[in-house]
Design a protein that fits this description.
CATH superfamily of chain A: MetI-like
Structural class of chain A: mainly alpha
Low-confidence stretches of chain B: 19-64
Largest sheet of chain B: 10 strands, mixed
Oligomer: heterodimer
Strand content of chain B: 15-25%
Radius of gyration of chain B: 22 Å
Distance between the termini of chain A: 38 Å
Distance between the termini of chain B: 63 Å
CATH topology of chain A: MetI-like fold
Structural class of chain B: alpha/beta
Strand order of the largest sheet of chain A: 1-2
Number of strands of chain B: 12
Shape of chain B: elongated
Helix content of chain A: over 70%
Shape of chain A: globular
Strand content of chain A: under 5%
């Protein structure tokens, strides 16, 4: 009683000085909070305003489902971005297909099986992997992976969708590992103990009990990986070859991100080419938005549990 | 203790990097000089002309003598070397003028000169009729040969312009058809909008008809990838060609400065400083432009691996 009474008294004694500090600080925090919102709104509005004119000029159907991109063609320019959309989807799907199993097994190993010292070493390695700049991934891919693919499959050049998929798979590993490991560690010990007591082996327990219990966290990890893969530009710019072909595993391809990155510097202001690049940005933005909505759904379900 | 050690390590790393960097640039400069000046005399000429020019400037007070200010140039990434050389030499004549260079591409450079966002636009292609019609003025500073590069392992060393055209159009797809080994051809080019690409395609007559295997967004990428791929063919500025790749002869003419200057090497393009008609340049920008166009700057331009136009 006494303790709770004292601060009230103090507060009563000097309310002014408190308000003097409290009010402005509150305003500062509010402003800081709104800055983030302001930037999101600004970017959204800017992308929509600058992305819509080209879509209107080209036609939504021709833009999204046109298969030919020849933005600087002098007589017959075409602005179909289906090759980019499909490449981005295939590339991301391929990276997920390779990266998720490896990442998930690593997470199970780290969270449940590995001796603490080994787990510590692996965790450090994973953290380092997460910290490597994407241009370094691209560089290593260009120097090692691309020639290897060329020689293995006897191609004219190794820059291909396959090279991009492998680079992306490695790049999304850290986020998949750390998020699903956290999810696995959050599974209540009692579940596993009950399973073990019923006579299940350790591996059976991890895959039949722990993994299903952590499934929304693991799903969040996958979605996070998708988000990272679809938004990556620099690394795949260096290994994908960048020709606007319809995607196939061994041909040179161009992603949504690399389409913007490779042409923006030379597109003249106000031209349809530049506006179409903004429109690609808008499409990419919508993709990322959808992925974020899905991610939030998973995280929310996790919390409700 | 640990912290101190890591700080020490970091310092050491930075120091070694800095050292390595210095050595690199030093040796680079060494090689360019050797490569571009066939006789040692050219180098001496540069110096003497430089000093005489300096005297001229200081002896003419009616021109305002030492000017000061900032000149913003923007445009072609291919002109980076030329601009670096010109800026450095110009610094000795007008130490108070700062020349900024921003490599954003020829299109952006011309756009910048026309809209006034930079003083001088840099373009590595000739101006289009639209652009000159809108008042852009071309001041040709230098000529640059576009070299056709292949991997050093490649047995082919002489191509005609027609053969090059059919390779880039995808009509010829195997080196054996050109007298080389039996291997597929990997056709490397620059991205749409690049000055080198439009120059090459225009000169060779393969505009918008190229079937590229890969597109790269810098000259360095082309050189690097041609150097590492025995099947590759690509194009790059003469100034960017180094020992890691082989420049083929075109119609039997070797690609070097002399053949570009006398016009016998067919695949070449101009380096242009773009100004806007009716827009008055600042004194500093005018002085820089005049210097770049002057015969005194010719050797400086040559030292950057291209051929001076004046």
């Amino acid at each position: 009683m006494n303790e709770s009474a004292t601060p009230v008294q103090e507060g009563g004694k000097k309310p002014r000085s408190r308000n003097l500090l409290e009010r402005p600080m509150q305003a500062v925090f509010t402003v800081c909070g709104f800055i983030a919102i302001a930037f999101v709104l600004l970017i959204t509005v800017y992308l929509i305003i600058s992305g819509l004119p080209a879509i209107r000029e080209i036609g939504l159907w021709d833009f999204l489902f046109g298969t030919r991109w020849a933005s600087t063609h002098k007589t017959d320019p075409a602005y179909g971005i289906l090759p980019f959309i499909l490449t981005s989807i295939y590339g991301t799907a391929g990276a997920i297909l390779i990266g998720v199993p490896i990442g998930f097994f690593t997470a199970v190993y780290l969270a449940k099986v590995a001796p603490p010292r080994v787990a510590g070493v692996i965790r450090t390695a994973v953290d380092l992997l997460a910290g490597i700049p994407s241009v370094v991934y691209g560089l290593v891919g260009m120097m090692v992976l691309v020639p290897a693919i060329r020689e293995t499959f006897d191609l004219a050049a190794g820059d291909s969708l396959l090279a991009a998929i492998i680079v992306l798979a490695v790049m999304i590993l850290p986020s998949i590992i750390s998020v699903s490991e956290t999810a696995l560690l959050a599974v209540p010990r009692e579940y596993e103990e009950a399973s073990l007591a019923l006579g299940a082996t350790e591996l059976e327990t991890y895959f039949r009990v722990s993994a299903p219990a952590a499934k929304s966290g693991i799903a969040a990890a996958v979605v996070l990986g998708v988000g990272r893969a679809i938004g990556e530009a620099m690394a795949i710019l260096m290994v994908a070859g960048n020709v606007a072909n319809m995607p196939s595993l061994f041909s040179s391809v161009r992603f949504l991100t690399t389409a913007i990155a490779s042409e923006m510097s030379y597109a003249s202001v106000g031209s349809l080419q530049r506006n179409a690049l903004y429109s690609i940005g808008l499409v990419l933005f919508l993709f990322i938005m959808c992925i974020n909505v899905v991610l939030n759904l998973f995280l929310k379900r996790d919390k409700e549990k | 203790m640990k912290k101190k050690l890591s700080v020490l390590l970091a310092c050491l790393l930075v120091f070694t990097l800095a050292l390595a960097g210095c050595q690199d640039t030093a040796s680079d400069e060494g090689t360019t000089n050797e490569g571009t000046t066939n006789e040692g005399t050219t180098n001496e000429n540069t110096n003497s002309e430089n000093t005489s020019n300096e005297n001229n400037e200081t002896n003419e007070p009616e021109e305002g003598g030492a000017l000061s200010g900032t000149v913003n140039t923007d445009g072609s990434t291919s002109m980076a070397d030329v601009m670096a050389a010109l800026t450095e030499a110009f610094k000795e004549i007008q130490p108070d003028i700062t020349v900024n260079y921003n490599g954003s591409g020829s299109g952006a450079g011309i756009e910048g000169a026309m809209s006034g966002t930079c003083d001088i636009g840099l373009s590595s292609r000739e101006l289009s009729e639209e652009e000159t019609g809108a008042g852009a003025v071309a001041n040709v500073v230098a000529k640059d040969g576009v070299a056709i590069v292949v991997n050093p392992e490649n047995g082919v060393s002489d191509l005609t312009v027609e053969q090059i055209a059919s390779i880039f159009k995808g009509e010829v797809t195997n080196w054996s058809e050109l007298g080389g080994s039996d291997a597929p051809i990997a056709v490397f080019g620059r991205e749409a909008g690049s000055g080198t690409r439009s120059a090459f395609e225009e000169i060779v007559g393969v505009e918008d008809a190229c079937a590229y295997t890969n597109e790269y967004s810098s000259t360095g990428d082309i050189i690097g990838n041609v150097a590492s791929n025995p099947n590759a063919i690509g194009y790059a500025s003469l100034s960017a060609v180094d020992d890691t790749v082989k420049a083929v002869m075109v119609n039997g003419v070797e690609c070097n400065e002399d053949t570009v200057r006398d016009g016998s090497y067919e695949i070449q393009r101009p380096f242009v400083m773009v100004t806007m008609e009716g827009t008055e340049l600042s004194d500093a920008a005018q002085a820089f432009l005049e210097y770049a166009m002057s015969p005194e700057a010719a050797d400086i331009i040559a030292s950057a691996g291209v051929v001076a136009a004046n």
